[in-house]
Design goal:
alpha+beta, 9-stranded mixed sheet, 3-stranded antiparallel sheet, globular, binds adenosine-5'-diphosphate, binds magnesium ion
């Protein structure tokens, strides 16, 4: 029964979203779209209004600049040089990302930890040579790798990493990039844009016809095309899920979001977490962190941060949970529960 409903809903979404495309053309505004492969994912930038073409070109240059700065997989990036040399002075942007990561590390009790890179390597997620690591190695890494071991001097941005510790901004780089691009586009006078950075969505303003954008939240099983569609504007919509990057061995799925307490892929009952937040960097950090927390802890975290963000949680047992700020912005054919802050 559910499958049929999901299929029907999938069809409805295609119609809805196709409708959105048609409106785009009817708005009579200049529209410019370009696709690019960067940060290990496909990105599509769509910008509306006068000067859209130049704005898209400038945005692509900015993506490439940030990739060169932040990619831990690029041996020349600032992060890679630091990971090798263990000591250095961070640039202004890496300082911003490190400080933001540290704040989120503290407020999530270490569920979000940008020093997880050695664990990612142990699983072969770096270089795509997937394998299950020895338990002893994971125990050792989870003991020796931890953001609180990083020495950081706020006065002069000097940073130093203990032997095994390496940084990886992979869980926030796309969110930060979206936030930077939105800022840049607004400075260029752009009033409307939809930036899809590999599933990390950053919106500038409304659609050209002044109605909100409609953003589909993917169904992890792909049964229905979307779990729900959100009508939102001028915000980031970022999803972390177990279906984005994974390998399977003996019928078990090992995905790329790691619980820093165990060194294993997070397994606390969630299939996907979508965060809606005006700050794209935070949206990205929180989507990863709440995924690691699992359902109950994620709900409690939202209750104490409900002014900062809204969320859609999809659980392993098929529950769709939506925070109260989204209830009037949501379309879905599925049953869902609204999460409210307790008085
Ligand atoms: P995606 O990159 O698919 O958008 P995320 O934003 O959730 O998904 O980021 C996942 C990436 O973040 C991983 O590939 C890894 O580099 C890094 N990562 C994995 N687990 C954690 C964690 N607990 N804290 C911080 N970063 C993590
Ligand atoms: Mg993230």
């Amino acid at each position: 029964m559910k499958t049929v409903r999901q299929l029907l809903f999938g069809l409805l979404c295609v119609v809805l979203l196709t409708g959105c495309e048609i409106q785009k053309e009817q708005s009579g505004q200049e529209t410019w779209s370009r696709e690019v492969f960067a940060m290990d994912t496909y990105m599509k930038l769509t910008v509306y209004g006068a000067n859209a073409e130049n704005a898209v070109d400038a945005a692509i240059l900015e993506i490439q600049r940030l990739e060169n700065l932040l990619s831990a997989a690029d041996p020349e990036s600032e992060v890679s040089v630091l990971n090798r040399e263990k000591k250095g002075v961070l640039s202004e942007e890496s300082t911003y990302l490190w400080e933001k990561s540290w704040e989120v590390y503290l407020e999530t009790q270490g569920k979000f930890d940008v020093t997880i890179y050695p664990v990612m390597k142990a699983w072969g997620f770096v270089g795509e040579e997937f394998h299950i690591p020895e338990e002893g190695l994971l125990n050792q890494l989870t003991n020796e790798v931890n953001a609180s071991l990083v020495e950081w001097n706020k006065e002069n941005s000097e940073i130093s990493l203990p032997d095994r510790v390496e940084l990886d901004f992979g869980a926030i780089a796309k969110g930060y990039t979206g936030a930077r691009l939105a800022e840049q586009l607004k400075k260029q006078g752009i009033k409307s844009a939809l930036l899809n950075l590999g599933g990390n969505i950053q919106l500038v303003g409304n659609k050209p016809d002044d109605s909100p954008f409609r953003i589909g939240v993917k169904d992890p099983d792909g049964t229905a095309e979307y779990l729900c569609v959100l009508s939102v504007a001028d915000t980031a919509v970022v999803t972390s899920g177990d279906y984005e990057r994974y390998f399977e061995q003996d019928g078990v799925r090992y995905h790329h979001i790691i619980d820093p307490d165990t060194g294993y892929p997070a397994d606390k009952g969630l299939r996907s977490v979508t965060i809606v937040c005006r700050d794209g960097t935070l949206a990205d950090a929180y989507s990863t962190a709440l995924f690691v927390m699992g359902t109950e802890e994620a709900i409690r975290f939202w209750e104490s941060h409900s002014k900062q963000f809204d969320a859609v949680l999809y659980t392993e047992d098929g529950r769709l949970l939506v925070t109260e700020g989204l209830q009037d912005l949501l379309a879905t054919a599925l049953d869902y529960e609204v999460l409210r802050v307790k008085e």
